Amino acid sequence: MPHLKVDPAYKHTEKDTFKSSGLIRAFLCGMGFGAFLMFILLIPQNVQAFDENGEAVCLAKNIYFEAGNQPLAGKVAVAQVVQNRMEHSSYPKDICGVIYQAKMRENWKGNQVPIRNQCQFSWFCDGKSDEPLDTDTFYESYLVAQDVIIGKYPDITEGATHYHSIMVEPYWANTLNETVQITDHIFYK
Question: Does 166 map to a domain?
Answer without folding.
Answer: no
